[in-house]
Amino acid sequence: MNVLLRDLKRQVENCTRCPLHKSRTRAVFGEGDGPFFMVGEAPGRQEDIQGRPFVGQAGRVLDELLSQSGMERNHFFITNVVKCRPPNNRNPRPEEIEACKPYLDRQVNILKPPAILALGRFSATTLLGRDKLITLRDYRGRVHSSIYGIPLVITYHPASVLRNPRLRNMILEDFRFFYREFYSTILR
Length: 188
Prior knowledge:
Strand content: 5-15%
CATH class: Alpha Beta
Structural class: alpha/beta
Shape: globular
Helix content: 40-55%
Order of helices and strands: HEHHEHEHEEHH
Strand order of the largest sheet: 2-1-3-5-4
Radius of gyration: 15 Å
């Protein structure tokens, strides 16, 4: 991990910008070697305990989908919009997203990924710079420009598969789209 990222990680681990810090076990900064960026919504229970992104049930689904699409987890820096677990896994609130957004901005500016994969409505909405939550089905299957000017592909959050198994094929389709558009050409 480079020095800038290591310093930013320390800041996230000591953050008190919103009330979520009071109930967290560990802040979840993110991890991975890149070059790509993957952004989820917020840590869950297992992530909060381990301090790592996507290590619970949704993480297992993510790993399966990445494998099925021909991609590897270690080719992504994986993080979340919100770095601390909201109580009872509730959705992150706008003020919590706003409090954490400077950390996401810095992560992107330090790592300069060639493309970003957004997992879920909150990450997609944040990365598109929208004020209101979007409907994911309207944004799937094409490349968007993120608020950073970096290409962005949007899909459902892997946790949604746990509630609605029919979404697995849609996410897999989106992962394969990302693979064709970016992964296969950049990682030759």
